[in-house]
Amino acid sequence: MYPIMSVPDGAAINTEPLGTKYKFWYQDTNLGLCLFKEGRPNTGENWAEKVTSHLAEILGIPHAQYELATYEQRRGVITPTLATFGSRIIHGNEILAALAHDAHTEELRPYRNTSHKLQRVLAYFKQTQDSVAPPAEWDASKDIHTALDVFIGYIMFDAWIGNQDRHDQNWALIRKSNGLLSLSPSYDHGSSLARNLMDSEREKRLTTSDKGYHISTFATKAKSGFFPHEEGEKSVALGTVEAYRRASARSTGAAEWWKNRLASVDFDDVARVINDVPDDWMSEKSREFTLQLLKINQERILNAKLS
């Protein structure tokens, strides 16, 4: 069972302006500088952050650490800073704004930013493959060598967990004090695993004979944080599997490598990750629905025809 961390009363150093949730930075005795982030009431955002961090570990995705936590009667998660030893986080919106005049990130909410085009992001990583390294903890002996190859893994991971929040502030680079750039580990997966459904809806979608309402159809509705680039296409966010399929054209070898990783996942391990969430943080119906959703999404990804 996952432990519940207790953030001391009055621990906040300063609040965090990005995002819409109550959050603040504080100094943790064991983990160093950490962000406490409260999950929205009546959602599964807290357990989604915790579960997806362990799913990332299973898949081999570089990721931020998340722990379930409480602060002054609030429930949330804590995550240690990714910017250590004088390094700096550079979010995607900052990177893209420097590259294109129409990257109007200051004018729109991130999820409405239609200039966050998949091909623009992938092109950036392709063009900077000699200057932007994979995450610092990445094992260079693997067949995946570039930040682009790892980022394609992030996109596939989003498709597996149904992450609909990979907007331009939810991916980043890390600039070290010596100026070297690397892709940040993946972070902020709380908008995954259908965390905002009520258990009554989960039950209906699991048991209905109405194919249009069934969980298998529900899984196909997940939208990525990326928009299409092609001329004439509507400015509607790409589906999560479609985003992965299109990304594969930039590095077919990497896309296949990640696909093989997903194919080898042991769902006994996945079930243990889900079942280790305390009962008063995640309902039994949420566990059942989450496991089934992950199985469906795995099948959808493995059946996807890569570009």
Structural overview:
Helices cover 35% and strands 14% of the residues. It is built from ten helices and ten strands. By secondary structure, it is of the alpha+beta class. Mean pLDDT is 93; it is low at 102-111. The termini are far apart. It is globular. The strands form two sheets. The protein has a six-stranded mixed β-sheet with strand order 1-5-6-4-3-2, covered by helices on one side. The chain has a four-stranded mixed β-sheet with strand order 7-9-10-8. It has two domains: 5-80, Phosphorylase Kinase, domain 1 (2-Layer Sandwich), CATH 3.30.200.120; 83-307, Phosphatidylinositol 3-kinase Catalytic Subunit, Chain A, Domain 5.
Indicate the percent of residues in helices.
25-40%
How does the helix and strand content classify structurally? alpha+beta
Determine the number of helices (DSSP H or I, runs of at least 4 residues).
10
- Low-pLDDT stretches: 102-111
* CATH topology annotation of the largest domain: Phosphatidylinositol 3-kinase Catalytic Subunit, Chain A, Domain 5
The CATH architecture of the largest domain can be named as Orthogonal Bundle
Spatial strand order of the main sheet = 1-5-6-4-3-2
Count of the domains: 2
**Rg, nearest Å:** 19 Å
SSE order, as H and E? Answer: EEEEHEEEHHEHEEHHHHHH
> Strand portion, in percent?
5-15%
The counted number of beta strands is 10
CATH class of the largest domain: Mainly Alpha
> Biggest β-sheet, characterized?
6 strands, mixed
- The overall pLDDT, averaged over residues, is 93
User: What overall geometry do the principal axes of the alpha carbons give?
Assistant: globular
